[in-house]
Design a protein that fits this description.
DNA Polymerase III, Chain A, domain 2; alpha+beta; DNA_clamp_sf (chains A, B); nucleotidyltransferase (chains A, B); 3 domains; DNA binding (chains A, B); DNA-binding (chains A, B); DNA replication (chains A, B); Proliferating Cell Nuclear Antigen; homodimer; 6 helices
Chain lengths: ~375, ~375
């Protein structure tokens, strides 16, 4: 195995593949990155037991880059990546397998690293057959960003640490919840697939990091694995097994009060209130309204102090007497995930969840559970 | 005590003063920031037992800002600073002492924080008499940045954790060393002072953070304290007591080889070599030269690999047979602190310190001790 490649091209590939390689993998060879020279392409593979990324670099177009000798090598990602990062830009680097070592040469810089045994490297899974379900990279990224933050950081129910992807009637719905808040985002998709899959957060993070937002991504769901494929990249991920809770019963069907408010102004107020709510287990912030139709946000911490502010909604419909306490941190995170400038809030009473939606848009919804008021 | 001030002005002051306020100070009141309204100025004070900063804000020029009622209050910096940070820009905030509480009002935002007892706040030291020694903010900043990194992070000899400032014959020399490397920077100053002072790193960091580089700073050294004063800021610092080692005996008087080299190229090479030197206690990197007059940098870690590269010096004078090992991390830090593009290296032999200077400049000097080669 011997190849010549631009340092910049290799840096970009390692930046994507390197992140999924674990420092302490279940089998030692997985601490390495696999470089495979096949015809006029370099295939860069990295992964652990949960996720693998395969990036293909086409060397045909560049007269200086080439696979000098076909073959495979595996080299520890830690040193290899750091070394390539520090190689000068706009230069050619030669990478050559020499028995158990890997020689890396770039101009007057000569390096040798110990290799790993490429025969120990596990085979990557087979891509499921068919054309897959096509989705624009930018839409996929948007949907993930609007939901993944709401998943449980840790939970005895493993399913809650992932995001539920539900395919039904030419629609994909992503749902994440930690039982105190929930984020939901749906979009139309050309597929007749019906099925539900729970994707680990790490997969979604790496997906957002590695895909080209301008490209279309093909998705291949299967029983235990989800595969994403773009022009030059394949990402395999295991799925979280288990049954995701049925969220339909917790989504409020009606509301007593509907308020439209400027998102930026509301977020600033919640973040100020959060300052004095941090001593409470649930970051208790209280939102109230009386007949004047103005929103009041308040929080307090005995010994430290209290904060209260008023803000003028854009519109109020329904019942004006309103008081509900909630976790201000969860509320702020929901608002931050919304791109739009106006949001609609729905209230069903002090012990009913609050619904947050971008104004005039039904594809995104956030639910925040009420908490017992601290005072 | 009551005042009206622009949120932006107060944010800027707290950004400087807030950093020197400790979360767990020796006396509880020092966890607060002191606001003092005197005539048409607000004086903002913060500090701990080692360092105090006093920032004066002149409210005369602004028609909307004013001291409504003269007086003093102390409020916990943690909540106050976070709260003011989150107040809208371009707004006026009213701060009012109400018995043991502090009321903070900004438009529709009303906050009350518990205050601290201003009578417990320790008196700030008296500024020593006289005009002080004047130095341009930019020069002071430059001198600090070129030396402070070389001080010991921790050492049984407390003096080595500071930077030695030596005034003599209208010159200020700053010296920092951790015994394995040394940084020295001198500059001419209009003063007939002769004396030596050891300044804590924290003081130097806060000084660089708080002073206006375009202003002149007046310095007032005294036996146990050093005072810095600019137009609107005073910084008091305790000094480190003890005798700083005499460094004159370790500065090489002659050299066998003088090399001029491009700093950027050398730094890149050292940083690559450092990658494979990190397992050694002293990050052993070896620099060598033979009759071809090229510099070779190398390092190796058994099990992992080795690196070697050549680089062409701009000029070589003297003995060409040369081999010396040193701590590559210290060498890289010295190079990074140098602004100039060319550096001069002087070598006296494999067991003599290496001298690094910006080319054709004698006011800055770095020394790196040799280490025993790892192979």
């Amino acid at each position: 195995m011997e190849l010549i490649i631009h340092t910049d091209t290799l840096k970009k590939a390692l930046y994507i593949v390197g992140r999924v390689i674990s420092a302490n993998p279940s089998i030692p060879v997985l601490s390495g990155v696999k470089l495979e020279g096949v015809k006029e392409s370099l295939i860069v593979t990295g992964g652990d037991s949960d996720i693998s990324i395969i990036k293909t670099i086409d060397l045909k177009e560049s007269p200086q880059e080439e696979i000098v000798e076909q073959g495979t090598l595996v080299v520890p990602i830690k040193y290899f990546h750091e070394l390539i990062k520090r190689m000068p830009n706009n230069s050619l680097v030669t990478i050559k397998k020499l028995y158990k070592k890997v020689q890396i040469t770039c101009g007057d810089i000569e390096t040798t690293l110990s290799g790993l045994n490429e025969e120990d490297y596990p085979a990557v899974p087979e891509k499921p057959p068919g054309d897959g379900i096509s989705i624009k990279g930018s839409l996929l990224t948007e949907m993930i960003k609007e939901t993944q933050f709401a998943a449980a950081k840790s939970d005895t129910r493993a399913v809650l640490t992932g995001v539920n992807w539900n395919f039904k009637e030419e629609e994909l719905t992503m749902i994440a919840t930690n039982s105190q808040r929930l984020a939901l985002r749906k979009a139309s998709l050309k597929t007749n697939l019906t099925g539900t899959f729970i994707l680990p957060i790490k997969t979604l993070t790496e997906l957002v990091h590695s895909i080209d937002k301008h490209q279309f991504i093909n998705m291949y769901p299967s029983e235990s694995m989800f595969t994403f494929q773009s022009e030059d990249l394949i990402l395999y991920s295991r799925l979280i097994s288990g049954t995701y809770p049925d969220i339909n019963r917790i989504i409020p069907k009606d509301s007593a009060t509907e308020v439209v408010v400027k998102k930026g102004r509301l977020l600033e107020g919640i973040e100020r209130a959060n300052l004095l709510a941090a001593q409470w287990k649930n970051n208790n912030v209280t939102l109230s309204m009386n007949m004047d139709g103005k929103i009041r946000l308040s929080s307090s911490t005995s010994e430290v102090g209290q904060i209260q502010e008023r803000l003028e909604p854009v519109d109020v419909q329904g019942e004006r007497n309103l008081k509900v306490s909630f976790d201000g941190k969860f509320f702020a995170e929901a608002l931050k995930s919304i791109q739009e400038e106006l949001v609609s809030l729905s209230f069903g009473g002090s012990m009913r969840p609050i619904t947050i939606k971008p104004y005039n848009k039904t594809s995104t919804m956030h639910l925040i559970s009420p908490v017992r008021a601290s005072s």
